[in-house]
Amino acid sequence: MINLNFHKNRIKFWFNFTKNDQSMLEVGNSYEIEFSFTQEQVNDFCKISGDFNPLHWDEAYAASTPFKKPIIHGALIASVFSKVMGMEFPGEGSVYLKQVSEFKRPLFVENTYKARFEIISTNPAKHTAEISTQVFELERGKIMVDGMASAMHADLF
Amino acid sequence: MINLNFHKNRIKFWFNFTKNDQSMLEVGNSYEIEFSFTQEQVNDFCKISGDFNPLHWDEAYAASTPFKKPIIHGALIASVFSKVMGMEFPGEGSVYLKQVSEFKRPLFVENTYKARFEIISTNPAKHTAEISTQVFELERGKIMVDGMASAMHADLF
After folding, report:
1. For chain A (length 157 residues), average pLDDT per consecutive 10?
2. Does any CB of chain A come closer than 8 Å to the CB of residue B61?
3. What CATH number does residue A137 fall under?
4. For residue range B56-88, what is the model confidence (pLDDT) as tens digits?
């Protein structure tokens, strides 16, 4: 069964967004979360997805590539976007319509990264919003993944 | 450890693409694969991603939504794109640069779907290509996910 404590080591940040059932989300509202993946989680993702590209799990193979170390699957990184939008910002009731993810730099296991979300535009008639979805490394704030999502939410947009 | 037999029930189709170390991939080359996900795989993905949106695992909750049944995470569907590009088409040596995924209709567990990839354009100077990434339901060929990927491959593009 599902272990709801699985991600208790993830630290959440509330930025200028306060969850409030009465208020709609507006352009400029944002949300941040830190995340990391272990090699074990990446290996589990290999099994679930069928993506056994050795770049993700074989240290010796990865060492022979320009990446030097195993890198996290792009689709696993993108799962952070899906998780936040489905559970946190905007949260329950979101319908995920579109995701654009540009993988600008490789993400490595065990490193901690920051994902940032910001409402870029809303369409109240359609209850949809465009939300920027970005991943940064912590030390110098370099952008690792740039992107944009579209979501629908009957009450919040 | 990783079980390489995990996806032995997946059926692969080779379309007008023949793997050949000598030949570059060209516009119009395409690749198709059928896939499905079980509820257990979706539950495992909840754990790895931290995305416990009940829409994906709680049948009673899903029954109360317009979807009626648990739906597969978009990021898990997108893992099929990553898997094919990293392992099969173009395959080993691919660097995944970008993914656009438009979730047009929900995908349900246990159903079999077809993913289709086609080289839309190539840039031999940069060794990159744009590849359409689409998911169809089998019965009537309805499009479920529409999308486009960019990848780099030193030998094949």
Report:
1. 37 41 84 96 92 92 92 94 93 92 96 98 96 97 98 92
2. no
3. 3.10.129.10
4. 999 999 999 889 999 999 999 999 999 999 899
| Residues in chain B within 8 Å Cβ distance of A49 | 76, 79-80, 82-83
Task: Tell whether A125 is within 8 A of chain B (Cβ).
Answer: no
B53 touches chain A (CB under 8 A): yes
Q: Using CA atoms, how far apart are residues B119 and B153, in angstroms rounded to an integer?
A: 13
Burial B109-135 (b: 16+ CB within 10 A, else e): beeebbbbbbbeebeeeebbbbbebbb
Domain count, chain A: 1
pLDDT for B64 equals 92
Print the domain residue range for A23: 4-152
* Residue B46, both tokens: 């909840």
How close does chain B come to A27, measured CA to CA in Å?
A: 22
Mean pLDDT computed over B120-133: 96
Question: Is the reported ipTM for this assembly greater than 0.90?
Answer: no
Are A79 and B3 an interchain contact pair (Cβ–Cβ within 8 Å)? no
